[in-house]
Amino acid sequence: MSKVKTAAPRKAGKFRRQWPLWVMIIPGMLYLLINNYGPMIGLFIAFKKIDYSKGIWGSDWVGLDNFEYLFKTDAAFTMTRNTILYNLVFIVLGTILGVAVGIMLSELRKKIEVKFFQTVILLPYLLSWVICAYIGYAFLSKETGLINNFLEMLGMSAVDWYNDPGKWPFILTFVHLWKGIGYSSIIYMASIIGIDTSLYESAMVDGARKWQQIRYITLPLLKPTVIMLTIMSIGRMFYSDFGLFYQMPMNSGAVFSTTQTIDTYVYRALMQQSDIAMSSAAGFYQSIVGFILVLTANAVVRKLSPENAMF
Amino acid sequence: MKKSRVLAALLTASMSVTLLAGCGGNSGESGESSDGVESIVFATPLVKTVDMERIEKALNEILEPKINVHVDIEGISMANYNNQIGLMQSGGEQLDVMGYIGTYSSWLSKNQMLAMNEYLDEYGADAKEVIGEEFLKSTTKDGSVYALPSLNGKAASMTIVIRQDLIDELSLPVDQLKQASSFEEYCENLDLITEMYAQIHEAHPELACIVPYSSNTLMFTDTMPFADRMNDDYGVLMPDDYETVANVYETEEFETLVGYAYDWNQNGYVLEDATTTQETGNTYLMNGRAASFFIKGEEGQEEQIETATGVDVSAIKILDPFITTTDVNSMGFAISATSEHPEAAMKFLNEMYTNPDVVNLLDWGIEGEDYQVMGDGTVDFPEGVDAQTTQYGLNMDYFFGNQFIAYIWGEGRDTTLMQRLEENNKTAQFSPAMGFSYDNSSVSNEIAAVSNVGAEYLPGLRCGTLNPDTEIDKFNEALYSAGLQNIIDEKQSQYDEWRAEQ
Questions:
Q1: Chain B within 8 Å of A115 (Cβ-Cβ)?
Q2: N or C: which end of chain B has fewer CB within 10 A?
Q3: CA atoms within 13 Å, Cβ hemisphere of B442
């Protein structure tokens, strides 16, 4: 690398040296184009009434008809409210806990301890939602659930978890954090490890205690990462983790008032009809709102602390 | 240094090439080969992953010499099936014959099937004959036939399955249960069953008297006797007036039925996890938790459940069968709207309804490898093969074409079964709306909304965890605010139009 720096900085020469890097970008760019940008062409399906005998391109345009079912009923309010509120809670609690766990992990000195705790915390992230749902079922089921058995042993009456909507905001938040915290804490831990250790050394010389080090060195230096991750999650505010909201409550109808989100609504709405136009409409709606939210969040950040804005 | 750079470049280049190559791909070999054999693609949903290549080879050995058609079987797992078909049709892949389970009306509203009248008359006359006028009505819209329904026992009726040892031990009066021909008689049956449950519950409090057979419903609560569900239960024809589309959830009969479920639940007869369990009734029977469950079944249920669970049961029909359009067109075979070989497709379909060799091959696999013919005329596993080791074992004999010309599986089973099923199909009562199928595309927004309302309330009502006195009203209110009235009106106007044409 040091050789490169001393070489003549002529433009043509630069390209001659760097072309393998450019070539290496090609597969990634192609992947991005094919997988992320190509399918955007398909958005037009949201405005069509699909008729296979005419083909997708030849089907009739129907304007915004396909979007109607998302806004039509009282359910529209419930699902939008749930989606947004859950996401807000997840963003706030997820960030706080993620940073906390990240700091704790980075404070561990023995390598074996780090590995052990990391693995234990990350494990739930790797489980599929169906498995998580059954783990939950083993605790909450009315027939055989551990919690209910325990309650009955103590002489209390069993709780009908899957029929009580009031309990689910807590259960879902808990499960979300249990499952996701390992992954986000690793991201924070990675940026903590990147912090120059000389900062801590000089702070210690000045007599700063652990808490003060965290307060005045770690947290301020983590700020850019936190802001970036938060802006990204705000962009996904109109999406919800389908597995969490559909599988965890075992698709129990009685708790819809607190578990129905946009994604589960769309799934249930189109189970019978399997209408690709209506599902594209839902996706289109979610991404437009997400796009606007990202722009807004970023604009706010740019106003408050310009150096932390993403673009 | 230089060498490794060249190597890296080569590597990236080759990577991008493979990436591009992945995008091209098999558009499928199609069309006519030199010897005049026409190739068609036959897509079918499968209940499990099996190697269809062997079957395909054997199938073509029958078909090529006989009707000059080569069939490529495209077996697709049930869960992805509908999506795959949509992709094949919109992506321009060859697709000619497609089986379906439960998607007829959705395909109809999206024009995914070809009107097959002319081909049916010319190349499928025999199939047309065996299916019969009455059943073919169920897949006919405005005079055009869009599919051939699978031929099997359609006259399914509400049946209660009770453990035989409990019947013997408590001498339950099961012989007093009769096939009801009216709602009142049906309720008498349910009263009798309530008494039996009380007996079972008293003697064996550890048993769940009744468990859901599948999908979180006690079954008897979502089948209105002698009503035509008209495809989806949102707007039905009730027996007191077969001319007016009504909201079944507002009827007294519905309240009565879910009232039974609620009472049973209150008395502790129902499995506590009924609304959330993902297990089937068979599992609960097998592990000794269930005393009984309801199914909608035909002859031969007892044997099927006993083979599946190893538990001795009695299956008693408690309601006369009532055949509606959706009972008949719920599964069958259509020709793709994108097909370029409809004649060949029809020739193949004709074989599937009339040629026992073709049907047995698709139902049971290859003779000698997957099944063998037993002395009593049934078929069973050959030496050294069982349910675990079999290479085929789809057991989809109810699906592939004509079940009545296929072998019966299971040595020792009653070989008159097929005759009885066929007989029941003819003698059963048909809905006056038989042949009416409705196109829901103009109310798809409303259906999306009411489906969600249904998913919220129905499991609870059907399993008796929700109190009908308060919840039915809330349910109906939610349904109407989701646009149920529009669906009913649309159904009514389509139904009136259809009746005027009859």
A1: no
A2: N
A3: 10
